[in-house]
Amino acid sequence: MKDPEQTRGPGGETHQTAGEDHPAMTTQVGMPISDDQNSLKAGPRGPHLLEDQVFREKLFHFDHERIPERVVHARGYGAHGTFETTESLEDLTCADLFQRKGEKTEVFVRFSTVAGSKGSPDLARDVRGFAVKFYTRQGNWDLVGNNIPVFFIQDAMKFPDLIHAAKAEPDRGFPQAQTAHDNFWDFISLMPESMHMVMWIMSDRTLPRSFRFMEGFGVHTFRMVTAEGKSSFVKFHWKPKLGVQSVLWDEAVTINGADPDFHRRDLWEAIQSGDFPQWELGVQVFDDDFADRFPFDVLDATKLIPEEEVPVRKVGVLTLDRMPDNFFLETEQVAFQTGNIVPGIDHSNDPLLQGRNFSYLDTQLKRLGGPNFNHIPVNAPRCPFANLQQDGHMAMHNPRGRANYEPNSHGEGPREDPERGFRSFEAREQGGKRRTRAESFADHYSQARQFYRSQTAIEQEHIVSALVFELSKCDIEAIRARMVGHLRVIDDHLAQAVAEGLGMEELPEAADPARPVEKTEPSPALSILANPPGTFRGRKLGVLITDGIEAEMLDALRDAAKEAGATLELIARTVGGATLADGGRVAAQEKIDGAPSARYDAVAVLASQAGARRLADDHDARRFLADACAHGKFVALTPAARDLWFETVPQEPDEGVITLDAPADATRFLEACRELRFWSRLG
Ligand code: HDD
């Protein structure tokens, strides 16, 4: 290649041409392009010439760049990683990936929100998708789960109605990415089976601090099957090693404006910095006897099995350690399918799962444009594969040789493998063909009550506020009343608090449950706050700095944050940063109005006397501190910055506010941060 040269446009602007550092630009068919700035014209001011194949190809391709977004879970973010088996499950399943302790399986994971379109903000109050593609030696296994262990509906027949009701209303085209509107609550209040899920979606679970701090669930009951055909039921769980954490609604509202990509950025930064997020895979395994004794139907996706009844056995670790090279190629084109299972894993008769098995395959045709979407590298298996499927749009792997049929006498082509091949579990089925719902699916309230009663007082308050917020956005009074009628069956205090929040003068009539509500014991495992992670690892500290601060204090905070496994971001009045007392200069990552304290897990303000006075005049700096206090954050302040507190915050500093008198206080502060929030300030 020759050295780069510069060409000049008519206004003197420069364009670098191909050389050592840049390969020659070509058309799709490899023809080198001489000029990528100007289309071919008849004369300098003349019309375009139709023969300009370079222009036509470029625009043709651009015009066709978009593919349909996913009908649900359109907004998502993916990463590559590995799954390591930490305990062999050979007694339960012949699935190859679970046979050997230490076995590593490549995975691709995509997290998502459900209702919003591709460009919607990350912190919408919504369920999160947690879809994992395992590239096993026996083919791809897709565990397409959510961060909530139950679902809205019992039968896939109602899925289109659910999604229509949740998404923007069809006449007006809004609201976007939220369920706070009449259509959603109209549908939900007419579907008592959704009440358990309603408790979950109105809880802090739908406001995860990031993908790294949320659980995942396979939701359905699946089967694990041994080579001898012995089957056990199984529920899959993902447990984040860093613990579960959520943001407050008020933080979510601010973050959606300041950083709509909050969750994407978090995953990107963690993986790029080598802080690889991990989850343990857990299984709840049970047999037919347990299933028969369980008061609810294990095939009903609106029910969970409390961990206190069947403990979660940890069997592997998922580590995400590589971002895709290209978002579209992998994250956008990845196609998950519940139908992708491997020998040793099987479906149950859960009617939601059975319906999903149709929908996921079907939807890929629309989205990816043809039957060969598994030829796209992110979807292709990593193990050898061979079959006689051929042709179709964009075929890359047609069968080779003469025989593209089986049986054939050419001695060519792949053959079935009775030894290694997938066999369905031989379930015995009986009964007439009917459109029906099993009687055992009829209790819609008991687990909703159990969930609510398993929450701490703070979490219950959040559920109340979320319901009040959402229902206040419903114009139709009858819908609000119908919902509160359901809440009366779940819990009196909940119904009353919501009715009060909605300004109802009297409680509406209670719903009439088909089955008496069971007095189930609370399940502490269902609460986030009752199971604190006790670590600040993986969290982010926001440090607001001014000119004139001591380098020693900043270094002490940096060291303490590093020691705690947290990251630290500097914020200043300009991204230029600040001049330290010793004359040194530090750059900031953020300017104060772009970095509200809601974006951080804890904050510090390092200010000199003069710096604190300037901050006191700055609306964004005052809001930074006032919000940190209002959100129950741990706050560290240099003595001068305490003055800012007194000017900004209408309450005395409490034990969650730590003064940085000496560098050693930085460690004390980071230790306090392990609690994540100083809840008593909010109580
Ligand atoms: Fe679904 C996508 C999770 C019920 C139909 N679903 C999708 C994704 C996740 C889930 C995580 C995104 C996958 C990705 O990242 O590409 N869905 C669930 C869970 C459910 C569930 C946990 C209940 C337990 N889904 C469900 C039902 C149906 C669908 C009942 C239809 C009968 N889901 C789809 C879909 C999507 C999808 C339309 C849209 C894009 C895609 O499949 O690939 O087919």
UniProtKB/TrEMBL annotation:
Give this protein's Gene Ontology molecular function annotations.
catalase activity; heme binding; metal ion binding
User: Entry's Pfam families?
Assistant: Catalase (PF00199), Catalase-rel (PF06628), Catalase_C (PF18011)
Reactions listed under catalytic activity: 2 H2O2 = O2 + 2 H2O
E.C. no: 1.11.1.6
**CDD domains associated with the record:** GATase1_catalase
Query: What does the UniProt record say this protein does?
Result: Decomposes hydrogen peroxide into water and oxygen; serves to protect cells from the toxic effects of hydrogen peroxide.
Protein's UniProt name: Catalase
